[in-house]
Design a protein that fits this description.
This protein starts with a strand and ends in an 11-residue tail after the last helix. The chain has three helices and three strands. Strands 1-3-2 form a three-stranded mixed sheet, with helices on one face. 33% of the residues lie in helices and 17% in strands. By secondary structure, it is of the alpha+beta class.
Amino acid sequence: MYTLIRSARKTNALELTRQGDLIVRAPNRMPEREIRAFVASKEAWIRAHREKLWPPPPMRPTGWARPSSSVWPRLRARICLRGPGTGPA
C-alpha cells in the first residue's frame, strides 16, 4: 500500500517516511497501471530500505519464557539492596 501524489512532473519518485509509509510521486497524466508496474519493479529496493531504517525486533532465545506473575512478589522479597553505611556489611 502506498500514498500516491500526482503533480506536474516528468518522472516518478519513491519516498519512505520515518513511520515506514511509502509515498509515490507521479506525473498527472501517467496511467495507474504504469504507476503500479513502477512500484512493483522497485519492490526489492523498497523492502531493502525499509529493513535498513526499521530493522525487525530481535528474536527471543528459544525456550525463554517470562516468569509468571506469582513469582515476582517472592523475588522482590528476597532482593535487598544496601549502599555504603546503610546497615551491617
